[in-house]
Amino acid sequence: MAEQETSGLQVLLSTLQSSSDRESIRNILQVLTELLSAGTDRRIHYMISKGGSEALLQTLVDSARTPSPDYNILLPLIRLLVKVGQRDKKFGQKALELEALDVTLILARKNLSHNQNLIHCLWALQVFASRVTTGAMLGINGAMELLFKVITPYSRKRTRIIRAATEVLAVLLKSKSNSRRAVNRGYLNGLLRLHQDWQSHDISNDFIQIRRSLLLCLKHITNIQSGREAFLGAQGMEILFTTTQKYLGNQSMDAILSIVIQILRKCYPKCSLPLATASSYYSFSVPGSISSGPPCIINEDDFEEDGEEEEDQDSDSEETKEEDDDLETDLKKLTSKPELAWTEEEMKQYEAMCLELSHNFQELEFKSGDEMSSEEDRGIHQYTNFCHIPIPTSSKGHCQEGDKSPQGLEREDTNSQDPPLKQMKIMKSTGDAIHEKKISGKLGPYLVSNDQEEHSSRRDELNSQAALKEPPWDIEMSSCIYENTFLPSSTRTDETSVTMSKLLESYSMDVPFHNPYTYITKSERTKSVPGFKVLAFPDFWGHHSPPTSQSMLERKHGVQRAKIFEDIQRFIQPDKVMSRVVFSLDEPWLLQTTDATECLKFFSAFESGNLRKAIQVREFEYDLLINADVNCTQHQQWFYFKVSSMKAAMPYRFNVINCEKVNSQFNYGMQPTMYSVKEALRGRPHWVRVGYDICYYKNHYRQNSAAVGSQGKCHYTLTFSVTFPHNEDVCYLAYHYPYTYTALMTHLDLLEKSVNHKKVYFQHQVLCQTLGGNPCPLVTITAMPESNSSDHLQQLRQRPYQVIVARVHPGESNASWVMKGTLEFLVSSDPIAGLLRESFIFKIIPMLNPDGVINGNHRCSLRGEDLNRQWLSPSSQHQPTIYHTKGLLHYLNSIGRTPVVFCDFHGHSQKKNVFLYGCSIKETLWQAGCTVDTSIFTEDVGYRTLPKILDKVAPAFAISSCSFLVEKSRASTARVVVWREIGVLKSYTMESSYCGCNQGPYKGLQMGTRELEEMGATFCLGLLILQLKSLTCSSQFVAQASALLGSREDILGHQFHR
């Protein structure tokens, strides 16, 4: 049967080419048309494979060259050609070889006044031109001149012909040679006039397709440099900007507006950033340091066409594509274990970091957990809340003020009869929301100022007896706290010290594990490259999570388009742009100006602060530039700065114009954070998500090619608007919830003082000194032995290790909030925490990159290096924190105490939820399409157990986002090196989204510090359940854990209820 069909089709095609009988040709064309219309694309492709395209083209050429062409044959033949040609990738080349291009052009010229014949010719030309080389040949043969005879100014006649001609022209202009020809012959000006004419007359929008095709012609011409120059010279920017203004809010005009935006952005003249240098304003000299090389260059050609950038839906697929591109498929590399780089003598230094293995614990039996040092911790009892992080109760929905928990539980309810697991996590299958206890305490002022504020003449009298709601003191002055404000050697004015002392007396503190006096003391020891002398008020005064969660911002349609049009207006109407520099690290004298009354005041010279320059462009709009990482020319993402002198209820627009990443979660519901001093004075000391009309897009700035060694890299704009609630407030804006190095050191100090040392072994040591001279903390947490008997000491020393690290990337402050939750839970009185301490020894390095955090870096150390790419061969001189962390891990491995789990806490800017990256050889090879001989190679799948557990117990966790692939580009990261070299099967990176969740109980909500701390505590629960599922788990441990966790078979499994 198949052979009959094959021979039948071939006979038809052969007869079609050889026959001169017109009636026979018409009949064959009718049969072929019916065959193809009745079937699917499969029939068309089959016909193509049998030479159908060539037969039809040859028939076209032969029929057209007859003295009197028969259009009863040509028209159905062309319709058939178009149908076949749209599915034949080589159709244009075949038409060129068979001379069908010339024939079709001749037919078109002969039929300029015959609409039906002409439109068929135009359809054929459009299919021929779909191949760029064929389109270029049509341009050489005069196709564009022909089309411009057909395309006329606005008319309601022959609109089908005009539409077809504009579509053909748009396809032809995809060829750069045709675009150059159009520029040289002045066609661009004609296209602009046609666009204006159709745009102005088509009031009822009946001919959007014609207008769209004309714009596509302009878009393709402006793909080349000469086209852009001609477009600018013809006032094209002004024309398109003006003609589209009245359609900006009209969704039905999206097809037009999206192309206009692409043309305008492409033709906006590129320029360098308004900075003195691309390098960081701060530099640090390191012995033997390397000069930071040029960053990864994004060629301008790669971004020539912006494409459709009006995406309104979130897409998290890009990260997976990036991972799949560089999978490690070399089995030797995946399984090899490099030789130890540490000598036996060098390894001995790490014995002092594991005192729990050698200590006799005699003197600790009499140490009280309430002992305090007197001088350093002045006022510690009065201003410190020692409340440990409560068992998280998972606000599973959008908690509104006044809501009550369905279960009647409060955050600090310790008398609940529910199993601790229920308090820790309401399972994802339920929709119940357990609401947090409302904040009852009131917090005092915010902090921080600059040298201008140091000499400020505004010194209002403090009336400490006045009403709390309307504090009479100068907000700006109250927010000025210097590191030595309360120290005996202070050289600051007594007035500032007295002011803050009275403020502290007026407001009670309710921030767990925070004390402003301790913070000031610790800050004196923090060493920064610029030598910061001022404290940011939120860091000094403390943050308490707001009582309700915040939803992700719903992006309004057309917001990005409107913002881009406002940017383009600067070029078109430069007289309306102020371009007034109001803050600049490069121009420090600007900080001393006092006459700038009609602008905001900015400041960022405090720990973790980052703002390099602020330019007022309109009355309520500012361009902001972020400082690059120290000793770098890149990594502009983290920002944290103070702003003051604002007017209430006015929309201020902020544009961060030197961002680097191609996309951001700011396009998908994420908001920056803000802390208001006046709100804090009124008892609401919260970092909250703020901002509206938020979008993130590529701008016209390019980094100077001399700075990066090649073409300038692209920059992106983050724009957001903020309406401040109070006049003359002092507010802080940040990329994410800040968490400083001094906050960590304060936190650790207060944690240590809060624990019961008879039950909790809490050892705070120094892992090493950083390049900047700051101690990198190492914390050990476990349970104290019941006594110093040999049996109890042996029991302690046999406990397995868990190693947790965080904050190797300074800008990922969410990792520190997760770590905060982990630390507070581990030392708490919760029974689960107690069982964890009795079961494990926790080695925790809460901040691997203190210098980066202190100096406001986003990713690097003071050498300009990404420390999470230095794990293969770290240097004690250049990467001391990585070197000694790896050395400690090697030491544990060498004494037979390889950690059960290694986890590195991170933050993620491209994806939502919390998830883990792990390591699997088989999954990597399978994903890469490599065959795996399972009879020779086996792999323990235990690396998947912890993610499965967390998916059940942690509301923010999403196992669907987890990945266990080993990429070449990640070979030098902590996760891969610890897995490969130390032999830790369960070696992970835990990523927490800057944005929020798109699944589970927190779906649609942004991550707050409460959710992040909860994740840190829940991670500990996951470790407990992981131990329950291990083969080495004792029956006593099973009994204890099962009693605490309750009868949760969905988590524990049947085997544990024995």
Explained architecture:
- The protein has 1058 residues and is α+β, with helices and mostly antiparallel strands.
- The protein has four domains: 2-270, Leucine-rich Repeat Variant; 451-541, no CATH class; 559-734, Immunoglobulin-like (Sandwich); 744-1029, Aminopeptidase (3-Layer(aba) Sandwich), CATH 3.40.630.
- Helix content is 39%, strand content 11%.
- Helix 6 (91-97) packs parallel to helix 9.
- The protein starts with a helix and ends in a 6-residue tail after the last helix.
- The model is unreliable at 291-323, 367-383, 387-474, 486-492 and 1054-1058 (pLDDT under 50).
The best one-word shape is globular
Q: How confident is the prediction overall: mean pLDDT?
A: 81
Cα-based radius of gyration, to the nearest Å: 35 Å
The major beta sheet can be summarized as:
7 strands, mixed
| CATH top level assignment of the largest domain | Alpha Beta
Number of separate structural domains: 4
Quaternary state of this entry equals single chain
Assigned CATH architecture of the largest domain = 3-Layer(aba) Sandwich
CATH superfamily heading of the largest domain: Zn peptidases
Which blocks of ≥5 consecutive residues have pLDDT under 50?
Answer: 291-323, 367-383, 387-474, 486-492, 1054-1058
Helical percentage:
25-40%
- Return the CATH topology of the largest domain: Aminopeptidase
Distance between the termini: 68 Å
Order of strands across the main sheet: 1-10-11-7-5-4-2
Helical segment count: 42
Kindly state the number of beta strands. Answer: 19
Report the structural category. alpha+beta
